[in-house]
Amino acid sequence: MKLREIAHSRTGDKGNTSNISVIAHNPKDYAFLEQHVTAERVKEFFSDIVQGEVVRYTLPNIGALNFVMYQALGGGVTRTLALDIHGKGLSSALMNLDLPDKK
Predict the structure, then answer these.
(1) Tens of pLDDT along 2-27?
(2) For 36, phi and psi rounded to 5 degrees?
(3) What pLDDT is attached to residue 102?
(4) How much is the pLDDT for 80?
(5) Is 48 within a domain?
(6) Would residue 20 count as lying in a domain?
(7) Is residue 101 part of a domain?
(8) Which of 4, 30, 52, 76 has the most CB atoms around its CB within 10 Å?
(9) Is the Cβ–Cβ distance between 94 and 3 less than 8 Å?
(10) Helix spans in 1-103 (H)
(11) How far does CA 51 lie from the centroid of its chain?
(12) DSSP state, 1?
């Protein structure tokens, strides 16, 4: 199963830091997301892009996880040579994260 099947995302960026929120479509799926979408998995998923730490914040009252990814944007909008100079493409890419099927 792909992450997009049970969640959507929002993102922002500032300098060389990208911030991705993963929000459960159904609040009942939040615990599943919390178990399977870890900072380590996100860091591994973006291993070619994110050079710094990935920190996860849990927001159970709104059924969301927030990931702050440091050194993730090639130096930032004014310094990078990347085609997607903002972090918005990263949230779209994260929706392709493979998850185990829900039981």
Answers:
(1) 999 999 999 888 878 889 999 999 99
(2) -105, -15
(3) 78
(4) 52
(5) yes
(6) yes
(7) no
(8) 30
(9) yes
(10) 30-36, 39-45, 88-94
(11) 15
(12) -
Sheet strand arrangement including 17-24 = 7-14, 17-24, 64-69, 54-59
Beta bridge mates, 68: 19, 55
Q: Which residues pair with 95 in a beta bridge?
A: none
Q: How far is CA 44 from CA 49, 59, 69, 81, in A?
A: 10, 22, 12, 22
Give residue 36's domain range.
3-93
Neighbours of 56 (CB within 10 A): 18
Which tens digit of pLDDT belongs to each residue from 39-96?
999 999 999 989 999 999 999 999 999 999 998 887 666 555 454 555 667 888 899 9
In this predicted structure, what is the pLDDT of residue 77? 61
Looking at residue 68, which CATH number applies to its domain? Answer: 3.30.70
User: Number of structural domains, the chain?
Assistant: 1
Q: What is the pLDDT of residue 1?
A: 94
Say if 16 falls within a structural domain. Answer: yes
